[in-house]
Amino acid sequence: MSVPRLPTGTVTFLFTDIEGSTRLWQRHPEAMRVALARHHEILRIAIESNGGYVFQIVGDAFCAAFHTVSAGVSAALAAQHALTGESWGESRIRVRMAVHTGTAEVHAGEHKSGEYVSGLTLSHAARLLSVGYGGQVLVSSAAQEMLRDDAPTRVELRDLGVHRLRDIAGAEHIFQVIAPGLPAAFPALVSLEAVPNNLARQLTSFVGRRREIAEVQRLLAETRLLTATGPGGSGKTRLCLEAAAGLLEDYPGGVWMLELAPVTDPELAAQVLATTLGVREEAGRSLLATVIDHLRTKRALLVLDNCEHLIDACARLAEALLQACSHVKIVASSREPLGLTGEVVFRVPPLSLPDSRHLPPLERFADYEAIRLFVDRAVAAKPDFALTEANAPVTAKVCERLDGIPLAIELAAARVRTLSIQQIAAHLDERFRLLTGGSRTALPRHQTLRGLIDWSHGLLVDTERALFRRLAAFLGGWTLEAAEGVCAFDGVQRHDAVDLLGRLVDKSLVLMDERDGEARYRMLETIRQYGLEKLADSTEGETVRARHRDFWVSFAEAAEQRLQGAEQVTWLTRLDDDHDNMRAALRWSIDRDEAEPALRLGAALVPFWDTRGYVREGREWLDTLLARAGATPAPALTPQGRRALAQVFDGAARMRARWSEFADEVDLQTRGLAVWRELGDTRGVAEALNNLADVSRLRGNRARSKEFVEESLALFRGLADKRGTAHALILMAELAADDGDHARARSLFEESVPLFEAVQDRRGLSHALVGLGGILTRLGDDRRAGALYERSLQLAEELGDTHAVATALRSLGAAAHHRQDHARARSFYADSVARFREMNDSFCLAQALVGFALASHEANDHDRAGTYGDEGVALLRANDARGELATSLERLARAALGHRDVARAARLFGESLTVWGDSQDPSGVATSLEGLARVADARGLPAIALRLLAAADAWRRARGAQRSDADRNICDRLSAAARAQLDPSAADAAWANGASTPLDETIAHARGMLETSRE
Q1: What are the tens digits of pLDDT across the range 352-380?
Q2: What does pTM read for this prediction?
Q3: What architecture is the 210-347 domain classified under in CATH?
Q4: Burial track 602-625 (b if 16+ CB lie within 10 A, e otherwise)
């Protein structure tokens, strides 16, 4: 028996198992033995008859691989139909199935259970299977994207929404296959917490609040906007979370919490919502409009937490969402209402308390929420704490004096580690004496909480107080290193910071989280606000803010240097963690017109913003910095500041490039280059020149691009800068490939690879491998090209670089197309298209669409090929990417000619000639002329074909342009065929005419003749 050709690269997996199989085995062991054998037979036949390969069976679970999504779904449906029609008797079985597509490799040699290698893809398929029901077929978003173009007949996909899968980062958009003869109605998926959400898993128990939770849920059934109000520490956030968690099944569109406490800029409220929902910005549209489109048809619940400092922005955001999204509801927590029409305000009451004048028996103390909470937290702080006849009355008194406010009770309970309950009560009397005069019910609760924090603060020694108020400058948390860098001065020694920080953690003024073996610290927002007031009351507020800014400037600059090497992932994560701190430092510097530190920080953050996709935000920061720098006299900037200014120009240009705004990119790069030259910074000049070379190539000006890159390469070589040299070599290789000099392109790519490896620049290496693979594909070395693409994809996945992953997939599509494996080519291209669409990268999307169109042509799907090709061309034209536009037009024209669509080929070659002619590109003009010659030949016009070939030859010779051996052979055969149809004198005359006539006349005449000859 021959071994089947196993799918590799992008593979579709079908995973199945029997729902409730353990229960069935326990109840019907004999019947299940028979049923399982029949189950295995049905699945094997369904899988293998649809071209699938069963690579693993574990008990009743099947794992199979397919070359296409359509085949995988067809196998699943065939199996479900057979299983449904089977008579199972008492052991009736129901099988759940999941189809997922992703990258995977096969072990060389053996073909046995478990030979596929791709933990992420296989785990993803398994987790998708785990949320379904017997009889149900689920499809992942990656598989659905490709199934849209190749679905089995009479099959529909039902959108089941976005769900969190166990052990899988991010959320998964899941679809159900609907087909005639199979059940379509199933309960809600059993994904994490059943419904898509980001509700945090709480580390402490939730005490009481049953009545309040029920009331909030009842009110949400009657209104679309509910705001829970109350003082800081009253438990608004926790109450909203618990109420929302109980309503998950009512909101299939998701329950999402927006943590607004770290956000200081009101304009970022929509960004937080978009990030929470996983919605990416789209060029030319407001982020809020994109979010509204995402939510418009969803039944979702949004929890806006800590709105008070962004009250106006939150009100505007809520109003816009409620007006546009009829199925969305909002529950907000705030110290004041949002003030919108229709808003229902729920005032969060204190926890229930016993009457201290008529205390209940000890066994009844637990009936009161405040007592239960105090005991729960006290036991956590001191495990041997217990409520006794002796301490119960004092505990009740403490809870009463704290007005039943949860945060106040928790902070007080934490003190049992070092104080007796009687001592705690005594401190409360001492600290709250001023605040408890008169009727306690008339006191503003924020004063009660302030009194508690005053009391907690009063227990600190001077060095602890100093560190506490200085730590309040951090947003979103900090590390020990940051605490030392910002806060260790004037009485707080660096070597004492760790001990002092530990004391603040013990006293619950600071919280500690551990991640990947490193401690990270934060404050509850209420406590942080109190600390900020103390900082403002001190004489060191400006000093702390300045030290905070300087620390993050240095941190960002250090991170920038590590984002290209082996530690890239680690430092990207660190920048993610402290993005809010750096935003605050930027805003503080800008508001104080401190141009130089702001420029340095913005410049250092450019690679982070670019990699993480913060294109809109990064662009806005950089534009603000450039506007402020323009108002700053040049002498006010040091050389370091001028260098940062040049980097900001480069960064702003890079942000334009992400949105394909190439004209603006050129302007900014040119201005940055001028600053680098003024500084005499050779490396900066070289990088700017390389960037200008890249955008010039994309715009079709290859001659200018070559000038820039040659100067850039010379400068990088002079600096012995391996990474810069490698990037310049890549661009030179791409230019050589454009000219048809594949041997030189290969040599240049191969020279760049070890340079990237030497500096451990995985992102650059991935780029180089893709380029080299492309050249090897053109030279016919498909085996090595495929290996390079796979390695590039692996590097990109290791980095979590979604752009590089999409690029590698596009290249794998090109390789499969070259091998005439059109099904796999379309599969790779579809995956790439989906990813570029998600990133809103219209330029790279256009390239993937053109590739998809070419593969569709080869699959004889000409209608779809035309649709994809036209969309890709339109995007390139809109982006003013003239070089890529002309090349794509030529490729599409050749495909059209190969499928005898001569009229389309003529139009596309004519358009490419116009684009190349505008840029005066010698190779491009000649290639398009030769393409038109092929059109003339197809229409039986040998004289015109010869004239165009002669014009192309003359154009190349006059400008020293190269062409590939393959193109030369095609032209030679075409010329010979044309001459065979003419007498020698007529052929010579046509050639001489084409060689001597000005190009524009030749083109006009050829177009006229071709148009006249069209039938």
Answers
A1: 888 877 888 888 888 888 898 898 888 88
A2: 0.60
A3: 3-Layer(aba) Sandwich (3.40)
A4: bbbbbbbbbbbbbbbbbbebbeeb
